[in-house]
Design goal:
The chain is an alpha/beta fold and about 250 residues long. It has nine helices and ten strands. The strands form three sheets. The chain has a five-stranded parallel beta sheet. Helix 1 (about 25-35) packs parallel to helix 9. Bound molecules: 1-deoxy-D-xylulose-5-phosphate. It catalyses: [ThiS sulfur-carrier protein]-C-terminal-Gly-aminoethanethioate + 2-iminoacetate + 1-deoxy-D-xylulose 5-phosphate = [ThiS sulfur-carrier protein]-C-terminal Gly-Gly + 2-[(2R,5Z)-2-carboxy-4-methylthiazol-5(2H)-ylidene]ethyl phosphate + 2 H2O + H(+). It comes from Thalassobacillus devorans.
């Protein structure tokens, strides 16, 4: 079970809701993933206009926790405004803080991310913060009191998978709050990799929405995350430099 703030989830997969070929495929993919947490960009959805097409209307919202995110924000001030808007719409008290500092790489701005996270904590939000894989920043954010840390595997939408396993490993080892690897996951292998490292969960979007068959990929991600978690809990063997016979050498018939 994954616990964040006062919520507990069976699934360790959080799914983004952007850029699906159609609402119908999205709905099917969400179901196939068995996710319990859906994240969406508040700025890209007109949550107050009932006439605008809105994927949230397509879903049985009893089944999901909504995780509005502050995508599109470039300053702490913008992120805080977006979070307040999400709360005012009655969507949820959880917020994914995302403050982008570079348009080309889409990497987060560490200073504005920290500022926004602190402000939203003061305002009583359950704060899940998207960061780069900076180990010290992750520690500082945890000390500030955030509820979950979301280090990127690689840039958003890049599908490159985990580019700095060592940093992610350090973040996972040091964290006493849940670590959700977020962004850059390209394939089920990447999702399983994150879970085998000991991440508490994975948040992904493009790998599913951009797949040739989003529904199949959503299911594949579900299994990959379950397999990765099981493997982590089972405890992998140590890597050795040379071959070691796997058959016992005693008791052989001669
Ligand atoms: C949907 C969302 O929150 C994204 O900003 C997130 O970081 C996912 O990234 P990928 O699309 O690379 O999975």
């Amino acid at each position: 079970m994954l616990t964040i703030g006062d919520k507990t989830f069976r699934s360790r997969l959080m799914l983004g809701t952007g850029k699906y070929p159609s609402f119908a495929e999205q709905k099917e993919a969400v179901a196939a993933s068995e996710t319990e947490v859906l994240t969406f960009a508040v700025r890209r959805m007109d949550i107050f206009d009932k006439n605008e097409p809105n994927l949230l209307e397509e879903l049985d919202l009893e089944k999901y926790s909504l995780l509005p995110n502050t995508a599109g924000a470039k300053t702490a001030e913008e992120a805080v405004r977006i979070a307040r808007l999400a709360r005012a719409s009655g969507l949820c008290d959880m917020i994914k803080v995302e403050v982008i500092g570079c348009d080309k790489t889409l990497l987060p701005d560490p200073f504005e991310t920290m500022k926004a996270s602190v402000q939203l904590l003061e305002e009583g939000f359950t704060v899940l913060t998207y960061t780069s894989d900076d180990v010290v920043l992750a520690k500082r954010l945890e000390e500030a009191g955030i509820h979950a840390i979301m280090p990127g595997a690689s840039p958003i939408g890049s599908g490159r998978g985990i580019v700095n396993e060592m940093n992610l490993q350090f973040i996972i080892e040091q964290s006493e709050i849940p670590v959700i690897v977020d962004a850059g996951i390209g394939s089920p292998k990447d999702a399983a990799h994150a879970m085998e490292l000991g991440a508490d969960g994975v948040l992904l979007n493009t790998a599913v929405s951009g797949a040739d068959d989003p529904v199949k990929m959503a299911e594949a991600m579900k299994f990959a995350i379950q397999a990765g978690r099981l493997g982590y809990e089972a405890g992998r063997i140590e890597k050795k430099a040379y071959g070691i016979k796997s058959s016992p050498e005693s008791g052989l018939v001669t």
